[in-house]
């Protein structure tokens, strides 16, 4: 089974947001308007993807993809899409209640909040109710680590911030997307140190993985790295087109492409 750990079925609000303008400089094929759900499923089929985790996008004062919209997309996809929710961290009690609704009523398998959208690191006190709610619901907290494509500060994505989060919440599963580049060594160090910290490879094609991450995938990090595409910014077929160049053995390949995500997200 191949699972895409980071994807979106984007709304027009998300795609038209000016934050994506910088991404279009090097990814000119990003659509400008919402596509039918079958378009996402067809992109998965092209790459042999069995399931994709698609996320809501909540920013300060701007819900670009709502949790209910994600639930609707999941419902249309006959088991191919899995929901990941998002919340407004400025409203802690509402965020906790919404996480419970996402998991208990909508059947979502994770919660994602992006520090750069809020311009605060994941050690900020506003994140901590989210971590408690994720622990109680037994779902991973998903976030971005590393450089941001949109023209927003990258510093809040330093992987080392997750070290303190993992120390405070050792039972919390944390999935850091986008490799942590240019701080990939930090990401590897934090994932190695903490049993429940993982890295996903979204937003990068296999030929662009840093050498340190490839070595980690081949050896002691084979149970710590999940495949992700960041669709529709990168299609899963493009993200995987040079997979053979990683020279992974059969076990490492199976873990990377699907078994790690199955275990982490309880799929």
Automatic annotation (TrEMBL):
It comes from the Bacteria. InterPro entries: ACMSD, Amidohydro-rel, Metal_Hydrolase. SUPFAM superfamilies: Metallo-dependent hydrolases (SSF51556). The keyword ATP-binding does not apply. Keywords: Lyase. The keyword Lyase applies. Residues 66-267 form the Amidohydrolase-related domain. Pfam families: Amidohydro_2 (PF04909). PANTHER family: 2-AMINO-3-CARBOXYLMUCONATE-6-SEMIALDEHYDE DECARBOXYLASE, CATALYTIC_ HYDROLASE. This is Amidohydrolase family protein.
């Amino acid at each position: 089974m191949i699972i895409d750990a980071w994807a979106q079925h984007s709304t027009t609000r998300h795609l038209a947001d000016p934050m994506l303008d910088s991404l279009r400089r090097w990814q000119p094929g990003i659509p400008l308007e919402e596509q039918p759900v079958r378009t996402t499923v067809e992109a998965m089929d092209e790459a042999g993807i069995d399931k994709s985790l698609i996320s809501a996008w909540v920013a300060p004062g701007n819900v670009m993809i709502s949790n209910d919209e994600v639930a609707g997309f999941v419902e249309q996809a006959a088991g191919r899409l899995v929901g990941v929710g998002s919340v407004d961290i400025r409203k802690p009690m509402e965020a906790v209640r919404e996480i419970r609704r996402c998991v208990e009523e909508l059947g979502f398998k994770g919660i994602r909040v992006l520090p750069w959208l809020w311009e605060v690191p994941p050690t900020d006190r506003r994140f901590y109710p989210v971590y408690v709610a994720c622990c109680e619901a037994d779902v991973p907290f998903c976030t971005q680590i590393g450089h941001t494509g949109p023209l927003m500060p990258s510093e809040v994505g330093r992987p080392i911030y997750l070290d303190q989060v993992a120390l405070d919440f050792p039972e919390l599963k944390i999935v850091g997307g986008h490799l942590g580049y240019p701080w990939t060594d930090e990401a590897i160090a934090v994932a190695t140190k903490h049993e429940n910290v993982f890295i996903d490879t979204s937003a990068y094609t296999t030929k662009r993985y840093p050498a340190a991450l490839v070595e980690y995938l081949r050896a002691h990090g084979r149970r710590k790295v999940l495949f992700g595409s960041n669709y529709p910014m990168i299609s899963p077929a493009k993200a995987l087109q040079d997979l053979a160049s990683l020279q992974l053995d059969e076990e490492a390949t199976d873990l990377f492409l699907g078994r790690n995500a199955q275990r982490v997200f309880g799929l």
